[in-house]
Amino acid sequence: MISLPGLNLSSQPAQAQSVPAEAVTRTQDLAANTEYRFEVGFSRTLTVKLQSGTAELFGTELAPSTTYSFTGTNGAIFTWHGCKLDVGGDVESDYVAEETPMMSFANLHFALENLRDRSIASGSTEMGPRVLIVGPDNSGKTSLVKTLTAYAVKTDRQPMVVNLDPRQGMLSVPGSFSAAAFSSIVDMEEGWGSSSITGPSPVPVKMPLVYHYGLKDPEEGRTFKSLVTRMALAVTSRLEEDKPSKQAGFIIDSSGAISQGKNGVYDSIEHIVSEFSVNVLITLGSERLYSDLSRKFNARTTDPSESVSVLRLDKSGGCVARSEDYMRSLRHAQIKEYFFGRGDEPLAPSSQTADVADLHVFRIVEPDPSGSYTTVDEYGISVEKPLFEPVKVDERMQNQILAITTAGPKDSQDVIRDASVRGYIYVASVDEARRKVKLLSPLPGGTLDTALVVGSWPEPVEGLVG
Ligand SMILES: Nc1ncnc2c1ncn2[C@@H]1O[C@H](COP(=O)(O)OP(=O)(O)OP(=O)(O)O)[C@@H](O)[C@H]1O
């Protein structure tokens, strides 16, 4: 058996052990072009083994005779030509679906392949496809990104994947934005990974680029657009040095919040399209979004090199609306994995004690309940609040995740905002009397003489250290 999914084995050893791979299984026959869909909660485990035929999970092929196990996961195992699966364990629900959008996903992949071939034919002067995926919450954006990435990697491409959704991290913790080039297969059970230093999950070619956003909703913060601009510059300059990834292009995953629009205006989407020079904009699961965006971008076809193809894909019937409880468990599992690794790839985070006075923590300033960022200064004049405010480390900071930025503690607000992230630390405990703080870091050592940034997202995680 490989590992428990994503999501740290140590949190649920009892359940994991209660379902050994050799426990009772049943055979699930799948006809061609159908998929086996499952919902597995955090307290259950499903095991799946490919008995015969071929099958894939979000584009990644299942290896024969390998038992995969899933916990805290919703997903679907699809087969193009039919297969038999050995299914065991326990699920919230499962069923076989005959209608899937996989053919349209595969067609999209082939269209992207044409653009990649065109980039190669141009001697890499042209960049490969620059794709942005938008759609409401739970419309299947991340699953489509995984599928397109897996298909591209199977064709020996090295696409870059950019995550601009703070609800879920990619190779990092929730609340971050990240980008990484992928070259080998996406790990089956976990699928995306949150740790940047474990081995087998999606294997980035280089360390991921990470920026800290620190809020739940891209539309609520003042730093979203600047971070998109920074990320676009960083991704573009990385691609200039990396031919295979430049030819393969990139795929951007976004948050459902930016697809809501305000009176037909999609400011954040337009900003991403313009900063990343997106030329393929995929709308998932919303006729209205497709209609609004195609009207907007089709009107701009004066210069063909700047044209944006807006495509519409149907939402898969398998997409599951996830409860707030489920999402919280998912975030906590991701954070736990960032520090401790996974069942078969454990990490040993280092614990260090520091003086409270040595930490330079900046809190992201949030709007007041009316959404305003203005305040009245000592002269009664209305002024804009700063982006960050320095905060003292006290007991309220216990269980918080802090971003270690590349900015110095004396740098300006803009420098702190635009700084990339070296990694994250967890505040395990604060002893106010002794003025000491115990920190957990995925990497040993490291200087704390930088600006540490904390936001309201992700929320404090209790009990990370037992
Ligand atoms: N075909 C399918 N069968 C079963 N489950 C699926 C299928 N497609 C997606 N899901 C599940 O549905 C949920 C929502 O999908 P996904 O995360 O891809 O959507 P999203 O649009 O990225 O969501 P959000 O923007 O809210 O993060 C996930 O738990 C995913 O694993």
UniProtKB/TrEMBL annotation:
Residues 135-340 form the Clp1 P-loop domain. The lineage of its organism: Eukaryota, Fungi, Dikarya, Ascomycota, Pezizomycotina. Keywords: ATP-binding, mRNA processing, Nucleotide-binding, Nucleus. The gene is CLP1. Residues 30-118 form the Clp1 N-terminal domain. Transmembrane segments: none annotated. Belongs to the Clp1 family. Clp1 subfamily. GO terms for molecular function: ATP binding; polynucleotide 5'-hydroxyl-kinase activity. Pfam families: Clp1, CLP1_N, CLP1_P. Residues 347-459 form the Clp1 C-terminal domain. Component of a pre-mRNA cleavage factor complex. Interacts directly with PCF11. Coiled coil: none annotated. ATP binds at E35, N138, S139, G140, K141, T142, S143. It is found in: Nucleus. One of its GO terms (biological process) is mRNA 3'-end processing. This is Polynucleotide 5'-hydroxyl-kinase GRC3. The keyword NADP does not apply. One of its GO terms (cellular component) is mRNA cleavage factor complex.
